[in-house]
Amino acid sequence: MGKVILVTGPARSGKSEWAENLAMHSQKVVVYVATAAEYPGDEEWQKRIQAHQNRRPQDWLTLSVPMELSATLAAATPNTCLLVDSLGTWVANFLEEDKISWDNKIAELLETVQLVAADMIFVAEEVGWGLVPAYPSGRLFRDRLGSLVRQLAILCDTVYLVTGGHVLNLSTLGTPLPPPRE
After folding, report:
1. Of the listed 15, 52, 105, 142, which one is catalytic?
2. Which keywords does this chain's UniProt record carry (predicted)?
């Protein structure tokens, strides 16, 4: 298993920039795995995607992977650093999945992470620090992403929290919880 890093935090905290910094210093070929689908009619969304693209070095390969994340990770070579941005967007792509299909998808992802020889850096949003969403789809998203982040963090060598313009290494500051009991 390669080195696995999780970078989490709230919106606009700098988590993607921190993950990009880590990838730049990995001494490996960087592959940026974008989980967002492009929506040409959504000008604001396109500007967000463009801002991310403009920050990245030109020699990074970018893959658009809104769905097949496990297969993309499994295909990576050991001399690669995969930067997956972001898990929240990936989770949102599967909100229509039923519980059994979703649980299988997560089990596949977590198993794949443990088998990949490449380094992997995952970016994930923290969504559970505010109000409970008023709509079922919002609660489902929050619960699925929160559970995925917790399960993935157990497998990570390092977990960072980026908030308030600061980076905290949670792996050195905290104590990990045991795996969740379902």
Report:
1. 52
2. ATP-binding, Cobalamin biosynthesis, GTP-binding, Kinase, Nucleotide-binding, Nucleotidyltransferase, Transferase
